[in-house]
Amino acid sequence: MTWDTEKFEPPMALRNGHAMTIAAAFVRRRFNLPPAEERLFQVEPESRILGHCHWQPGKGRDAPVLVILHGLEGSSESTYVCGVAEKALRLGFHAVRLNQRNCGGTEALTPTLYNSGMSGDYRAVLEELSNGDGFEQVFFAGYSMGGNLMTKMAGEFGHAAPKALRGVCVVCPAIDLGACADALQRRDNFFYQRHFVKGLMARYARKAELFPERYAKNGFGRVRSVREFDDKITAPHFGYRDAQDYYEAVGAKKVLAKVCVPMLMITAQDDPFVPYELFLRAAPEQNPAIKFVAPEHGGHCGFISKRSGAERFWVEQRIVEFCEAIREA
């Protein structure tokens, strides 16, 4: 495979991690996506996840599929998910915009919460698309929390990755959750911390309404940070001692060296809460299967370029080009 990245150049006004992150979150975009087929993937006996599938007219199972997964408190409607899907469709891929458990209004589809360790859900999706549907080329792309899940899945497969899994792309993957939770504690990250905690608590309240026998509505005190949420809610419900025990168990950093499937990993050195230092420690570039790209700027999953057209949302274009290069190899 011969492939390389275009150099990322942000507008002058977005050469700051916070400015880029916020701009990417609030920019208005219009997408030219055809109607999607809703599909439920059975990932455990009592749990399903919802995908929005865009099948290419007139193309069968030999056309590649790109499955796109969002980050913490996102959904299949997140703008970056739709952006990647639109670009993939233009290149002749089928595209599946996938929700993690409980996301996109799907709390009733599973009795569980969601967390960063559920890589088995995406192995189940791969199994259904390849062995169930007969797709011969399946690619995955994940952002942030979704990036950790995709990296974890690839690392757990190791040398035994199914033939149909052709490549994985991850953007600002939270492969060291403890480091990310610590970064969110910084004063300059108060806005993001509050946003995540508000969303997590609202989702938990909906789960408590749906499954009152399983989830208490109170009794855990005030939750003011993501780490506190994981300490008081996530860890106990999944059998971990505390938040740090959970973070160490599910972070993909520990399986990074085992990744054998071609992987594109992109992060920004100025990401406010997925610190660049964690990648310096994890050293993904030492794995020959991983193409590691870390521009100086880009914020958290932002990467808005000063260029126009397809290059405006730079990382989306890199994802589809990487997959296209593997497809043609």
Give a brief description:
This protein has about 325 residues and is of the alpha/beta class.
CATH superfamily label: Alpha/Beta hydrolase fold, catalytic domain
Question: In angstroms, what separates the terminal alpha carbons?
Answer: 5 Å
- Give the mean pLDDT: 96
- The CATH topology turns out to be Rossmann fold
Give the CATH level 1 class: Alpha Beta
Largest sheet: 8 strands, mixed
Task: Tell me the structural class.
Answer: alpha/beta
Rg, Å, rounded: 19 Å
CATH architecture: 3-Layer(aba) Sandwich
Element-level helix/strand string: HEEEHEHEHEHHHHEHEH
Percent of residues in beta strands:
5-15%
Helix content: 25-40%
* Shape type: globular
Structure, described:
The chain is an alpha/beta fold. The chain has one domain: Alpha/Beta hydrolase fold, catalytic domain (Rossmann fold, 3-Layer(aba) Sandwich). 36% of the residues lie in helices and 14% in strands. The protein has ten helices and eight strands. The chain has helices at 17-26, 79-90, 120-132, 145-157, 177-184, 190-210, 226-237, 243-250, 276-282, 314-328, and strands at 37-44, 47-54, 65-69, 94-98, 138-143, 165-171, 263-266, 290-293. The protein has an eight-stranded mixed β-sheet with strand order 1-2-4-3-5-6-7-8, sandwiched between helices. Helix 2 packs parallel to helix 10 (314-328) and helix 7 packs across helix 8 (243-250). The termini are close together. The mean pLDDT is 96.
Topology:
Layout: H1 17-26, E1 37-44, E2 47-54, E3 65-69, H2 79-90, E4 94-98, H3 120-132, E5 138-143, H4 145-157, E6 165-171, H5 177-184, H6 190-210, H7 226-237, H8 243-250, E7 263-266, H9 276-282, E8 290-293, H10 314-328
Parallel strand pairs: 3-4, 3-5, 5-6, 6-7, 7-8
Antiparallel strand pairs: 1-2, 2-4
